[in-house]
Design goal:
Rossmann fold; 13 helices
């Protein structure tokens, strides 16, 4: 840590970009978080954007840029909302203050350009800390680079023994197991380090080839209660001897599993990560016993469907089934579900989604936090039937109607904006007559657009006009992350998008000569692609629709 801190102090009054570079899992994020937590309070504004590699694919780089700016400016008494977070005014505000920004797991030069384009974006003394696996991403932008090295074999053995067993390995059998694990960890401190605060250990060997560790090692760790990540494991299933009841997260990406278990051995698990286990074709029915399960990641497995008992998992919020080429149907899913992603599951025909969650009461969710929100993506699910799409749409609209989520997103193959949307057009401009909308008309709006085949990185922006005058510009809260193979419908909701509009209308009402003033709202939609390599291949927007939340009544 001292070495990286010294890089900052070489130009303490200047804006500095510092990179931390090293292989995956070696501890770059851990080091960056430690530095951030130690130094951030000395700055006027600060923001840690974690896991950009995955977050940019899921939400789009523009949404992350909004989050960065809003977090940097939220300590001020600012009226900047998500709708105009990257306006020239908001960007200029960044240059007024000294800030500390951490961009974690950057894997694309364009991410860096969008989130921290130039030194003069930030105020004097600002620091931008960047972690990456790819040194080329840093280019010439950074002022210093720290390469994080792996531990040598003796250091790795001592670290693992101390954290796994809380003592030295005097028992020859235990010592042999510890030597096996440290060998496969290859000096990676994140794969070997135990968490004192949580009495647990994280074993992350997902980048090691041909791994087959002896899982009995974990059963000898009495305090294990956090995470195990085993990559490319050659076991066909978890053995009955593997029983770690307190384990919260288990990950076996890229493994050879064909089934999970006969008897449940990890009942406390909240996250089950089985991405790229290409031989896994089914889950056991007793998965219902994982009553704390929140996240189920099964992307690019051989799953054809999910067990009927899945509906009983009342804590399950997120299911990922992207690229499951054999997935054909989904049984009744739990009403707690907020995220379902089945991108490129071209055989998927039907799904059953519960709408009601009895006794559910939610608190208002701040989109600036990392809480879940309704997110349903069916990109290139060409055979998904209309009834299933309507069921998901009803779920999304019911969640919106609760007014506890700041955002909602849905995407699916389709060709039209439904008739119940109050304002529809095939042109680029939608006109909203507020005098015909039930009060309060200023709450928020649902947007829908139909696009032709589009490249990755495509997103839709909206420019707002009030009485013919420019009011503000709002980016969409999503972006595609793969080619769409046909026309697709995008539905999104953003309760903050009316923030700037409300202020503008309020100003106009004060100056109005009569009490019954109804402004004329016009919204112009445009498509763009934030990935420069596809900028010349942007798809066509065929239809638009806008419906204020106070006006819609969904009909089955």
């Amino acid at each position: 840590m001292a070495t990286v801190k010294s890089l900052f102090y070489k130009g303490s009054n200047n804006v500095q970009f510092i990179g931390i570079w090293g292989m995956g899992g070696i501890g770059k994020t851990t080091l960056a978080k430690a530095l951030f937590n130690k130094l951030c309070f000395a700055y006027e504004g600060f923001c840690f954007l974690a896991n950009l590699r995955e977050e940019s694919k899921k939400y789009g780089i523009d949404t992350l840029k909004k989050k960065l700016i809003l977090r940097l400016l939220r300590h001020k008494k600012s009226h900047i909302g998500i709708v105009d977070a990257i306006s020239p005014y908001a960007m200029s505000r960044l240059g007024w203050e000294k800030s500390f920004n951490a961009l974690d797991d950057v894997d694309d030069h364009e991410q860096l350009e969008h989130l921290a384009g130039r030194h003069d974006w930030f105020g004097l003394g600002s620091k931008i800390l960047i972690t990456t696996r790819d040194k080329q991403v840093l280019g010439r932008k950074v002022d210093g680079i720290y390469k994080l090295e792996a531990l040598n074999s003796n250091e790795a053995f001592q670290l693992f023994s101390l954290n796994a067993f809380r003592k030295d390995c005097s028992d020859p059998k235990v010592r042999m197991l510890a030597m096996d694990v440290t060998y496969y960890g290859n000096g990676n401190p994140l794969a070997l380090k135990g968490s004192e605060a949580n009495e647990g250990i994280t074993l992350n060997v997902s980048e090691v080839e041909d791994m087959c560790p002896s899982l009995q090692a974990f059963c000898l760790m009495p305090n294990l209660s956090q995470t195990i990540a085993l990559g490319r494991i050659s076991l066909k299933s978890l053995p009955t001897t593997f029983k770690v009841e307190n384990l919260i997260e288990i990950g076996m990406p890229n493994g050879n599993l064909t089934k999970l278990w006969k008897e449940v051995q990890v009942r406390a698990s909240e996250v089950l990560w089985l991405k790229d286990c290409s031989n896994l074709s089914e889950l056991p029915d007793n998965i219902r016993l994982l009553t704390s399960l929140r996240v189920l990641e099964l992307s690019r497995t051989n799953i054809e469907t999910l067990p009927l008992s899945i509906k009983h998992l009342s804590s399950l919020h997120d299911i990922y089934l992207d690229g499951c080429k054999k997935l054909q149907s989904l049984p009744e899913l739990p009403p707690s579900l907020l995220t379902l992603s089945t991108r490129s599951c071209r055989l998927l025909r039907t799904l059953d989604l519960s709408l009601m969650n009895e006794g559910e009461e939610g608190n208002k969710v701040d989109y600036d936090d990392d809480d879940p929100f309704p997110y349903f993506r069916f990109t290139n699910c060409m055979n998904l039937d209309e009834q299933s799409i309507k069921a998901v749409e009803a779920k999304v609209l019911l969640e919106i109607n609760k007014a506890i989520y700041g955002i909602a997103i849905m995407e699916y193959p389709g060709t039209r904006v439904p008739k119940w949307f109050m304002y529809r057009t095939t042109k680029y401009l939608v006109t909203v007559d507020l005098s015909s909308i039930p009060q309060p008309w200023y709450d928020s709006s649902i947007f829908r657009a139909v696009t032709s085949r589009s490249p990755p990185g495509t997103c839709i922006d909206a420019t707002w006009y009030i009485d013919g005058e420019y009011a503000c510009w709002a980016e969409s809260s999503f972006g595609t992350d793969e080619f769409t193979l046909s026309d697709h419908v995008f539905l999104w909701y953003d309760q903050y998008s009316f923030g700037a509009i409300q202020r503008k209308i309020g100003e106009k009402k004060k100056g109005a000569q009569y009490n019954t003033y109804y402004p004329l709202l016009e919204i112009e939609f445009t498509a763009r692609c934030w990935k420069s390599s596809y900028c010349g291949k942007i798809g066509e927007i065929k239809q638009f629709g806008v419906c204020p939340t106070s006006a819609f009544e969904y009909q089955n």
